[in-house]
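Exercise 7. Given the components listed, write out the predicted structure of the assembled complex. Treat all entries as one system.
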Amino acid sequence: MERLKVLFTRLLTMFHKEQKVRELDEEVESHLEMLADEKRKQGMSASDARNAALREFGGVSQVREKYREMSGLKIVETLGQDLRYSLRMLRRNPGFATIIILLLALGVGANTAIFSAINDIMLRMLPVKDPHQLVMLTWQAKDHPELVQDLEGSGSKEENTGLFKSYSFSYPAYEYLSEHNHSFSGVFAFSANDDPINVSFNGRAAGTTLDGVSGSYFEGLGVPAFLGRNMVPADDQVESPPVAMVSYQFWRQLLGSDMAIAGKSIVVNGVSIAIIGVTPPDFCGVKPGHSPGLWIPLHLYARFQADQGNLNDGVPLLASVTTWWAGIVGRLKPGVTQEQAKAELSLLFDQYIQAAITTHKSSIVPKLAVAPVNQGLDGLRRQFSTSLILLMGMVGLVLLIACGNAAGLLLARATARQREIAVRLSLGAGRFRLIRQLLTESLLLALLAGSLGLLFAKWVSRGILALLSGGPTPAGITLPTDSRVLGFTFGVATLSGILFGLAPAFRATRVEPLAALRQSVTAGLGRRFTSGKVLAAGQVALCLLLLISAGLFLRTLQQLRHVDVGFDRENLLIFSVRPGLNGYKDDRLVSYYNELQRRIQSIPGVRSASFSMRGPIGGGTGTTAGQIPGYTKSDQRVPIYRHDVGPDYFDTLGVPLLMGRAIGSQDTQSSPHVAVVNQRFVHDYFHDDNPIGRRINLGDAKNPREFEIVGVARDVKYNSLRADVPPTAYFSYLQRPSILNFMAFEVRSQGDLKVLIGAIRHEAQALDKDVPIVGVRMQTEIIDQQLSLERAFATLSTAFGALALLLACVGLYGTMSYAVARRTNEIGIRMALGAERGTVLRMVLTESCVIVAGGLAVGLPLAWALARLVKSMLFGLTPHDPRSIGAAILAVVAVTIIAGYLPARRASRVDPMAALRYE
Amino acid sequence: MDSRTELLQGTLDMIVLNTLHGIGPMHGFGIARRIEQVSGDLLQMNQGTLYPALLRLQQKGWITSKWGLSENNRRARFYSITKSGQRQLAHETKSWEQMVGIIGRLLRSTEGG
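Answer.
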């Protein structure tokens, strides 16, 4: 209390302090006069009386200083002093300040850019009510469960754990969990796939994507309608009239921001749907990385799927136990933890699975897990996160190197200012007061660098966005500079200011004033400038780390670019058609596909054309659980990666058949069902026996759907470049339960494909002008896009590595130049005594080499130990890849030797006479 | 050798309070003189050190001040003790006496033993 009161009065009086001090002067003056009066009465002369009074009073100026200090807040006041003094120092030496600020701004800016990416991608919360209460259900199993015959939207085997993970559930599972749980105040579901649709409104047609959501979705998330009304559970019933919510972006772009949109109709896939509302601008759904234009109730979604013939076993989507396609999100009741919810729901899920496998045999049983919804299960986001954290580590190292530079420069200057500091110390300045003054200077530098770094970060961010564009980027990434980014930037700047300022400040003030004043400017502070050299060596070590990682990522990209995909990726064009959206069905679909194939094949320059459900690389995955009679146990099902293909597929891709025959036009709905499998399939499931004539059963024991294996094809990458070739089977598209209403076409040309695109469009138009061909891309473009993350990573890490190398060079150059400058005298003596220029050159160069070697000696083991951190991101090489490490060492040595050579040459050209006169 | 005693740390505040309590409103010079008289010139003190103490006591709210005229018509600042200053003085005096008593007993017991 007492202290507070004092603080308070001091704060109050601080502002009219000058007046206070004037009053004190007056008071002291009157005191002195009273004293002098007394002395005069005792018979002293006026001047003697005055002197006696002053003696008796004691030091007037000390009293005044004490008084001044007590009546103000000393810290605040001296801070102002320090700042003014620092600004004066900077102005007096602008070159020095500019260099430090620039070096640091590069480091801080790189950190800010990467942090804003982390902030935007990893830390951003969903724009919904209390997002921390939302959890997403996921499941995992040791492999693809047989029960799940059709898995839509999510599902992959994790490379490091080998676990099969997914967030897609069957609708009956959703119903069971939402009815029986006590952990959630609300549970809602959404379709895990994004379905592309054609929409027409007022005669304008456009493409967008659509999500099915349960009626409780928007209310449960706590997302209010921006316009119109929200979807409610009553909209999601069997007999409900068709309705849709549209996204803000869709409303802006395609509905012309019509304020009276609610109640109007749009046509989706030929069905008229009433728009009931628009979602808020920042809402993109809970699926990370996707932002649909339309949300429709699940019942309507299921009807669409049925209409399009997308049902695998003919069972309606909402009743199917074997089709898993819906994501589930729950809102925790207040007081219920995520662990409690997981415990309860796991139990419920186990009960549900036990019931389900009494009718559908499954030896692999999925287990439930729970994840915070904003982290989701999205592989993309997870992949981004690992990359971003690694990049953050790298830019952190860059900043450390920059701090090293700043510290080195300050150390050098500390020597130059030694006389000044000695003078101030001997005049009675406190050591800590001086340290504070020096720290204020470095903090000022750091904060200026932080501001400049923000600009630099904007620039880097734009580069990052450009690198990621065109690739699979989580939706809505803009890398905004919000308060968190600002806070981070200035936090980092302050921290680095303290980091690079503290040691030089302590060092600078550790002087013996008398000795320092007597000595010359160049003496003292350790003749050989060891601390500067240690700093430079540290920079070399960190730089080596960055360069090695840059090398590893560059080599990974290179390996991925040249990975054998199993077919010739050049001169291959991929595009899609969706005639199903224009009302084509069954036989009409078949004749459309065949006619389009025939027309394209007749274009001069086209060598061959075919089609399949999915494009070969980057077309997504489809897996089915099947039995292999004679090889799998009676209740065991194995995962089969499938391609459903048209005639000439293998010819067009150029995949050689190693045994038997390809799938051709003779394989129709009525002919015996056949399949072609790949080498991996033969190896994994037939233990390398001859599979020709053997069978795959995709049905079950009661309703078998058997396919006879008629050929073995060479291994081809499936969807991803990174993943190993999985056991793959090729089926005729005609021998599916229903004809697909969309196809990916593959066109192989003899020469330049680009000139053929016009001709292909022309043929498609001639066939049916209303069926557009979409997504026309070269296979090489698709592969390039798949590598966009790797490319971004390689580019950024190379850029940061180069920056680090530059900074380390500046550091070494500065250190050596300074060391040489200080030894000019000594070198002059050596030369005067007969040392050759070559000897001097060698002597100084050797010092640089010792620094670099020291840096390498520390950096190499460090790199060796840290390499496993990046292991999961590499492809086709070990983290200890000798070529990457060798190249990094070479780069460091070559560049730093040049940086060390310049000062050495300068040393060797010292004129002995001038050097001896120097000082 | 100088027979005057150095002022014990922290006791100046108490002495100033007690002085003001005894003689009523007074200026700095008067306070200094009064302390010298009462101590019989045995306390060694620079008169200047009084002023920071007076400021400190004001900041704590134990004394107040206002400008006025001294007996020989010089403008001077007169200090007077406040209510909370009185309380503080009473409290300090009590604990001082306790302390002196305890230390005195301790010293005597060592002498006697």
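Discussion: Residues 103 and 113 of chain B are 15 Å apart (CA to CA). The first strand of chain B starts at residue 5 and ends at 6.
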